[in-house]
Amino acid sequence: MRKIFKVALFLMLISSFSFSKEVILKDVLDREVKLNLPVKRIALGFYYTDFLAVGGVKALDKVVGFSKAVWTDWTPASWELYSKTLPKLNSIADFGEVEVGTFSVEKVLSLKPDLLILAAWQYQVLEFDLEPIVEANIPIIVLDYNKEKVELHAKSTELLGVITGEEKRAKELIDFYKNTANEVASRVEKAQLPKPKIYIEFGNKGPNETGFTYGKDMWGALIDLAGGENIAAPFVKQWAPINPEQVLISKPDVIMIAGRETELKKNQEAMVMGFNIDKKEALKRLEAYKNRPGWSALPAIKDNRLYGLYMGASRTLADAAMIQYIAKALYPSLFEDIDPIQTYINFHKNYLPVIPEGTFGIQAK
């Protein structure tokens, strides 16, 4: 009996060692991070839908805490749909949000995670506050979908594949993103057409106040991938408003106003787009931008090239569809066979547990 017990114990020890291995990964900041696989307890700072797209719904079982407000407050309609579809989300601990100063190192430590995942912008704000987590030997992996660089999307997705044990699915997603971006670039390059000028503004303040526009990050980087000339690039590094006079001087051929669901009831004039947003309401708010001083003389307004797009469809693998959307607005004749909004919906059908309904891209009348 004792012999059988020893054999069983030996097999259990062998099994535990065989299923646990230490790897050294390089994250998007080129930091070397030691990680024990498989990861069993994850604290997730951002990129929730990308985490689910790569790891699948089962990967949620490993999440012991997350920065809840970035999801619930920024895209509440998305949160409502996901939390109804995946009730487990409601019971996961919240360790606070970086931008409003509620991120709690103590809360993260209390969850005893094997790994903390942060967005690059979160890490840059928190770096010196994370020392207790480092001293507790909790690895920190930094991802970056915000900069909208194909290589960073790919690297972040590859890392999520290793973390969740879904390397094959991660590669499939990387191929999807790269192929989408490459096809757009190839069509634009072959056509050798003049680069149209484009201006994208976050419309959370409404037409009476200038919102953020984008230089090299987020929508600015997506403009580059779509082959447009971003009029804000010389004046904005990441995101900030530009002088309204500069828009008039630059005379954009295309204008896009990004919106999200949050402003639907908060601001009656702000642009709204996204989950459960009625198209008529979005169009009404978009049309109001035509009344800005001097805009009626702009080529984009004269030629009916004013668009609305969903803010929540950026900083994610799903923004492959937004590369198509911007490219089609810039070069309509080159992308007649492409339906970017269908690409966005199909991404969810293929990789996520919800199918979005609402308004994700519109053109003014």
From TrEMBL:
It comes from Campylobacter vulpis. The lineage of its organism: Bacteria, Pseudomonadati, Campylobacterota, Epsilonproteobacteria, Campylobacterales. Residues 40-338 form the Fe/B12 periplasmic-binding domain. The keyword Phosphoprotein does not apply. Keywords: Signal. Residues 1-20 form the signal peptide. This is ABC transporter substrate-binding protein.
